[in-house]
TrEMBL record:
Record-linked Gene3D superfamilies: Uracil-DNA glycosylase-like domain (3.40.470.10)
Domain Uracil-DNA glycosylase-like: from-to ranges: 91-179
Protein name, as recorded: Uracil-DNA glycosylase
Taxon lineage: Bacteria, Bacillati, Actinomycetota, Actinomycetes, Kitasatosporales
InterPro entries in the cross-refs: Uracil-DNA_glycosylase-like (IPR005122), Uracil-DNA_glycosylase-like_sf (IPR036895)
Annotated Pfam families: UDG
Length: 214
């Protein structure tokens, strides 16, 4: 079921769980980072997701308008009321992944609603280091889009120790937004769309394999 945030009961459940134990460390980090260096607002991670207990980290570009408080939910959540979130629900379901397996994040976690600049991606990589320190159970990182991939490269270059002692598997694919398919070649559009599906399935297979599931 997509866009569940429209349901008042679901939305209130997320509000009540904003500082539930599994998301409290991340959302308290968000509180501390809001307006850091004048960067502005940053959404919390919805308790619908795994928070610090998650086994997979999904990184996109930047928070969309529907993550804003007042305009949207105030959360990073695949049940937000927008097309990108709706596609994420479909990809989760197709890969056999439950929301609590994953924590959503962004290469640039502050709200800007545009492509982040190089310096902003670097700032995002610094936050990503902090996030990983809060998530001891991470096994798989899914990089969705070029900005996410850039942030990960910067993290590895600037803070190699953040992942040196961890056996993380990294999967890269296209961003789930419509712009990722903007090409006049229909075969290329189809290839990119299928790449996203296949990448999520790979993540699902990795998680099931790590858990010893058939």
């Amino acid at each position: 079921m997509a866009r569940r945030i429209r349901d008042e009961a679901f939305r209130m459940e997320q509000e009540r769980g904003r500082y539930a134990p599994h998301v409290r460390p991340i959302n308290e980090m968000v509180d501390a980072l809001r307006d850091q260096d004048g960067r502005g607002w940053m959404p919390h991670v919805a308790p619908w997701h795994g928070g610090v207990e998650a086994r997979a980290l999904s990184i996109l570009r930047d928070p969309g308008p529907k993550t804003q408080e007042g305009v949207g939910s105030g959360f990073l959540c695949i049940e937000n009321d927008d097309p990108t979130a709706e596609l994420q629900v479909q990809l989760f379901e197709g890969a056999g992944i439950v929301p609590r397996d994953v924590t959503p994040w962004n290469a640039y976690p502050w709200y800007i609603n545009r492509s982040p600049k190089a310096a902003e991606i670097q700032a995002g990589a610094e936050v990503l280091k902090q996030l990983l320190e809060l998530m001891p159970k991470i096994e798989v990182v899914l990089l969705q889009g070029s900005e996410a991939q850039d942030a990960w490269r910067r993290l590895l270059k600037t803070h190699p120790g953040a992942v040196r002692e961890r056996t993380l598997k990294v999967v890269s694919t296209y961003h789930p937004g419509r712009q990722a398919l903007f090409t006049p070649d229909p075969e290329e559009r189809a290839r990119r769309a299928q790449h996203r599906v296949d990448s999520w399935r790979t993540v699902g297979d990795m998680l099931r394999g790590a858990a010893g599931e058939p």
